[in-house]
C-alpha cells in the first residue's frame, strides 16, 4: 500500500470519527468510558443484561497445584459426575463418559483452556461436535446448561437430563475460550487474545491435543458449531482446521461442516439490515427508519476500511455502527433484544444466576478439578480485547471452504434483533461462490418436526440457510426439539428428511 492510499484511508477514518462525534454531541452525549456505545459501557451492559456478576473480570491468576498444574503442552483430563446430578438409572462415572479437563495452550505464555467433553448417549461413532459461545468472552457453559448440553438446571440447583441435548446425536465438546473466559485462565496477561488468528490457533492446538488423547474419535466426522459472536470464531476456526489438514500439520481432523446460529459474520451486510428488520417487526416507525438510516454512510465507510484485517478503522466502525443498534433500542423501549417478544425485567433480560450458583459450589469445583478458580461467565476484559476484531468481515474466507466441499449451515431464530435472521439471510445470499446463483434460485422449503412446520430453509450443494420459527437468539433454548432435529438431519446429509426422534433418556444409559 502506498503512502497516498494510507493518507486517504486515515482521512476517511478521521471523517467517520468526526461524524460520529457530531452525532454524539447533537444528542448530548460524549465519547467517554461512560458513553452508552463505548466498549467499556457495552461490556458492562452485556454482563448486567445476563445477570452475571463475576468476582473477577477475567481469569488472570497465579498457578496452583491440581488438575491445572501440568507444565507440558497436553491435556490433563478426568472423568467426572456432577454431585447434584439426578439420574434415574444411577449411572456410574464410567457409564456416563463425561470428562472435564485443561489444555496448556502450546503457543502461549501460561494459558490453560478448560473444556467439557460428553460422549454420545447414542453411539461412539456419532460425529464429534464442538460448540463455541460468543460474547466475545462468554462461557460455553451458558449453552451447556441452558441450550443444548446434557443437563438442565432445576431451581434447587440439581441437574436433570436434557431430553434434547446434542449429546443425543454427537460426542459433544464445550470449550471456554478465548483465554480468561469461564474456567479458562492464565497467569500472564499477554495471553489475552485480540483477533481471530490467536483464537483459531489456540482452538486448533487444543483439537490436536484432544484427538491425541482420544484417538478412538479421530475418524469420526467433525463439526464446528456455535452462536452469536461465534459467527466470527467459527469461520476462522474452520479455515484453520482445513489449512492444517491440507498442510498435514498433525493429526488429520475429519472436518465435514460448520454451523453458525444467529451469528455476526459480515457486519457490512448485517448492520444495514437492522433498520429493515426493526421496521418489519414494528419496533420503529417509518420516520425513525429514515432518521436512523442517515447514520449508515459513516458506518459503511468505516466497515469497508476495517475489511478483513482489523485496522484502526475497526474501532471507528464499532463506535459509528453501534449507534444504529442503540437508537433502535432506545425507540423500541424495554424489549429483550435477544427475543423481541419478551420484556427485560428491570435491567435484566435473562437470569442465568442458577448456573453461577452451581459453578461456584465447592463440591462442583472439586468434581471438575478446577481448584479455586472463579468461574467468569462473561468477561468484559476479553470483550474489550476483541473490539478491533468486531467489525471484520469473516464471510471472506467461507467460499474457499464451500468450494472444497465443507458444509455450512447458517440458522437463525426469527425473533432475535441483535443478530437477526434478515441480516444473516442477506449475507448468505450475497456471498460469492460457484453455487451462488443456484442457491439464490433455490426455493424455501418447510422444515418440519413432528409434522409441524418449525422453520423454512433453502439449500444448494454444501450451503444451507434455516430460519427457525418461534425462537430468539438462542435457538436450542427456545426450540430444543427442532434444534436437535436440525443437528441430526444436517450432519446426516439432508435437512429435508425427517429424523427419528430420540429414544427416552433412561434407555440410553
Automatic annotation (TrEMBL):
Function comment: Probable carboxypeptidase.
Keywords per UniProt: Carboxypeptidase, Disulfide bond, Glycoprotein, Hydrolase, Protease, Secreted, Signal
Record's protein name: Carboxypeptidase
Subcellular location per the Swiss-Prot or TrEMBL entry: Secreted
EC number assigned by the record: 3.4.16.-
A cellular component term, taken from the record's GO annotations: extracellular region
Record's signal peptide: 1-26
Pfam families attached to this UniProt entry: Peptidase_S10
Molecular function per GO: serine-type carboxypeptidase activity
SUPFAM superfamilies for this protein: alpha/beta-Hydrolases (SSF53474)
Gene Ontology process terms (BP): proteolysis
Database matches in InterPro entries: AB_hydrolase_fold, Peptidase_S10, Ser_caboxypep_his_AS, Ser_caboxypep_ser_AS
Family statement: Belongs to the peptidase S10 family.
Gene3D superfamilies, sorted: alpha/beta hydrolase
Amino acid at each position: 500500500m502506498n503512502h497516498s492510499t494510507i493518507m486517504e484511508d486515515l482521512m476517511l477514518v478521521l471523517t467517520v470519527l468526526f461524524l460520529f462525534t457530531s452525532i454524539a454531541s447533537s444528542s448530548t452525549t460524549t465519547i467517554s468510558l461512560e458513553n452508552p456505545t463505548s466498549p467499556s459501557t457495552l461490556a458492562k451492559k452485556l454482563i448486567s443484561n445476563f445477570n452475571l456478576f463475576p468476582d473477577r473480570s477475567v481469569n488472570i491468576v497465579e498457578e496452583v497445584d491440581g488438575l491445572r498444574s501440568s507444565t507440558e503442552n497436553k491435556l490433563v483430563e478426568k472423568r467426572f459426575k456432577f454431585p447434584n446430578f439426578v439420574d434415574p438409572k444411577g449411572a456410574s462415572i464410567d457409564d456416563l463418559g463425561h470428562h472435564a479437563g485443561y489444555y496448556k495452550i502450546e503457543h502461549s505464555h501460561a494459558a490453560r483452556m478448560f473444556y467439557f467433553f460428553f460422549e454420545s448417549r447414542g453411539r461412539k461413532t456419532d460425529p464429534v461436535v464442538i460448540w463455541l459461545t460468543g460474547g466475545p468472552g462468554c462461557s460455553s457453559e451458558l449453552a451447556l446448561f441452558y441450550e443444548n448440553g446434557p443437563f438442565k438446571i432445576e431451581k434447587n440447583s440439581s441437574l436433570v437430563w436434557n431430553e434434547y441435548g446434542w449429546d443425543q446425536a454427537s460426542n459433544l465438546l464445550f470449550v471456554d475460550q478465548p483465554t480468561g473466559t469461564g474456567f479458562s485462565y492464565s497467569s500472564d496477561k499477554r495471553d489475552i487474545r485480540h483477533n481471530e488468528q490467536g483464537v483459531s490457533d489456540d482452538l486448533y492446538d487444543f483439537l490436536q491435543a484432544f484427538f491425541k488423547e482420544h484417538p478412538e474419535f479421530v475418524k469420526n466426522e467433525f463439526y464446528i458449531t456455535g452462536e452469536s459472536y461465534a459467527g466470527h470464531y467459527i469461520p476462522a476456526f474452520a479455515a484453520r482446521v482445513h489449512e492444517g489438514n491440507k498442510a498435514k500439520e498433525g493429526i488429520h481432523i475429519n472436518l465435514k461442516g460448520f454451523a453458525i446460529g444467529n451469528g455476526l459474520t459480515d457486519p457490512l451486510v448485517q448492520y444495514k439490515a437492522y433498520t429493515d428488520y426493526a421496521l418489519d417487526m414494528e419496533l420503529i416507525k417509518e420516520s425513525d427508519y429514515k432518521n436512523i438510516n442517515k447514520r449508515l454512510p459513516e458506518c459503511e465507510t468505516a466497515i469497508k476500511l476495517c475489511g478483513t484485517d482489523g485496522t484502526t478503522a475497526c474501532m471507528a466502525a464499532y463506535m459509528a455502527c453501534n449507534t444504529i443498534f442503540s437508537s433502535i433500542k432506545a425507540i423500541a423501549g424495554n424489549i429483550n433484544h435477544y427475543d423481541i417478544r419478551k420484556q427485560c425485567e428491570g435491567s435484566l433480560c435473562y437470569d442465568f444466576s442458577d448456573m453461577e450458583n452451581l459453578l461456584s459450589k465447592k463440591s462442583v469445583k472439586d468434581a471438575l478439578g478446577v481448584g479455586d478458580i472463579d468461574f467468569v461467565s462473561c468477561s468484559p476484559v476479553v470483550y474489550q480485547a476483541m473490539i478491533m476484531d468486531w467489525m471484520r468481515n469473516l464471510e471472506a474466507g467461507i467460499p474457499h471452504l464451500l468450494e472444497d466441499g465443507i458444509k455450512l449451515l447458517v440458522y437463525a431464530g426469527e425473533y432475535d434483533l441483535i443478530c437477526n435472521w434478515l441480516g444473516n439471510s442477506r449475507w448468505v445470499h450475497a456471498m460469492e461462490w460457484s453455487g451462488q446463483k443456484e442457491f439464490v434460485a433455490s426455493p424455501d422449503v418447510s422444515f418440519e418436526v413432528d409434522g409441524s412446520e418449525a422453520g423454512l430453509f433453502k439449500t444448494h450443494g454444501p450451503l444451507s440457510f434455516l430460519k427457525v420459527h418461534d425462537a430468539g437468539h438462542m435457538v436450542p433454548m427456545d426450540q430444543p426439539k427442532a434444534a436437535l432435529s436440525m443437528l441430526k438431519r444436517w450432519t446426516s446429509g439432508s435437512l429435508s428428511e425427517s429424523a427419528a426422534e430420540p429414544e427416552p433418556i433412561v434407555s440410553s444409559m
